[in-house]
Amino acid sequence: MRRMRRRLSVPVFLVAIALVAAACGSGGGGGSSKAVVIGASLPLTGDFAQPGEASKRGYTIWQNMVNASGGLLGRQVNLKVVDDASDQNRVASDYNRLISQDKVDLVLGSFSSLLNIPASAVAERAGMTFLCPSCGSPQMFNRKFTHVFFAKPAVASHQADQFAQYVAGLPAEERPKTAAYPTQDDPFAQPVIDSVARQLATIGIRNVYSKVYPATTTNFDGIASDIKASHADMVVQGAVFEDGVGLLKSLVRADYNPKVMFQTSAPSNGAQYLKAIGGAGNANGVFYPVSWSPDTNYPLNQEFVQQYQAKYGGSPEEDAADAFATAEVLQAAVEAVGSVSDQDRIAQWLHNNKVQTILGPLSWDETGAPQQSFILAQWQSGQSKVVLPREIANSDTIIFPKSGWAGAAGQG
After folding, report:
1. CA-CA distance, 260 to 175, in Å (whole number)?
2. pLDDT tens digits, residue range 9-46?
3. Which domains does the chain have, with CATH numbers?
4. Does the predicted model carry a pTM greater than 0.85?
5. If you ran DSSP here, which 8-state letter would residue 147 be given?
6. Quick check: 232 and 178 in contact, CB under 8 A?
7. Hey, which of 148, 220, 270, 282 would disulfide with 368, CB 3.0 to 4.6 Å?
8. Are the CB atoms for 136 and 158 separated by under 8 Å?
9. How far apart are the first and last CA of the chain?
C-alpha cells in the first residue's frame, strides 16, 4: 500500500479522506465514525396517533441522551422514524423498506399489538431483533419467533393482576358483586379484560354485561345505557384511548357512577386524558395498570423525566417512558455483544440476561415475553398515584368506592 501511494503520488489529504471513508463503511464494532441508524414505524396519524407521538418522544429522548454520552459503541445514533398511519398493511411495508432498502442497522417497534404483530413478522423473517414498547398480546408469543421481545413488565394476560388481587382482598361485605366488561376489539386490550373476568369470577363476582366493540366505535351512549341497565357495581374496560374517553363521558351523561372503574391504557395518557374527559374530577378514583411511574428511583428515570420536561414540557406519558425503556434494552444488548450487526447474538443475550431500565429490571422467557408484573395506579385529586404494590406506592390511600362524577363531560 505504501509503495502504491508513492508511485501514484496521492496527496496526503486524499489519503486521509480515503481512510475516513473506509472507517465509515466498516461493520458493527466501536470506533467507527458512521452513525448507527435505527429504524422505526410509528402511528403518528390515525387511530393511535396520540400514543404513537408519545412513543416517538420517548425514542427521541433516548437518542439525545445516548448521543450526549458518547453514542452507541462510540457512534452517534440517528433515528429514522416513518408514519404507518395506524395501518397494519402499511406498517409491514414500512419495516420491509427500512430493513431491505434503507438498510438500517437496528429496528425498534411500533405502538400496539395490532401493528407490532405484522411488523415483528417482517423483522423475524429478516433475522432482525425486534423490541417493542407495546405488544403484549398473546398472539405475539405463540409463533415460535426467536428475535422478538416485549419491553414491558408483563404480557396482557397479567397486566391487571394487581387490580384483580386488590378487589379479591376487599372485605366480602364491601366487595363489588357484579361487573361489566366492555372492551375494544384489540389484541392487547381484550386479553386483559378476559383475564380479569376469569380471576374475579373465581371469587363470585358475576358478569352482568360483556361487549366487544369495534376499534372504529365513536359513540358509547348505547353501551353506557346498557351498563346502567345492568346495575353493574364495577366497570372494567379494555380501552386504548379515545374509546376510554368516550365511554367515561357517556357514563357521565347517563349519570351512572359505578363503585369501581378500571380502564387499561386510556388513563395513562395523563393530561390528555384528564382534559378529554372534562377535568380531573371525572377521573378521581379510576384505576389503571401502568408499567412506569415518574417517581421511582430506577437508574436514569429522573434524568429521563427532566430531559422530557425540558424538551416537551409537562410530565412524560407512560408510552414515552415505555419507548425509552425499549431503546434502553436494545442499547444494553448491543453494548454487551459489542456489535450492531450480529442480530442472533443480540437476541440470544436478551434471552439469557436481565436489563435495568426506567421501568425496573426486565427479563424474558424463550418466547420473548417479559416475566415481571405491572403497577396499579389510580387518579387521585388530579394526580396519578401508584397504589400497588405497596413497596413502590406513592400514596397511602386507595379511593374506594370511586368518587362521583364532577360534572358535564361534553359530547362525543
Report:
1. 10
2. 333 333 333 333 333 333 444 445 799 999 999 999 99
3. 36-152+296-362 (3.40.50.2300), 158-290+381-392 (3.40.50.2300)
4. no
5. S
6. yes
7. 148
8. no
9. 73
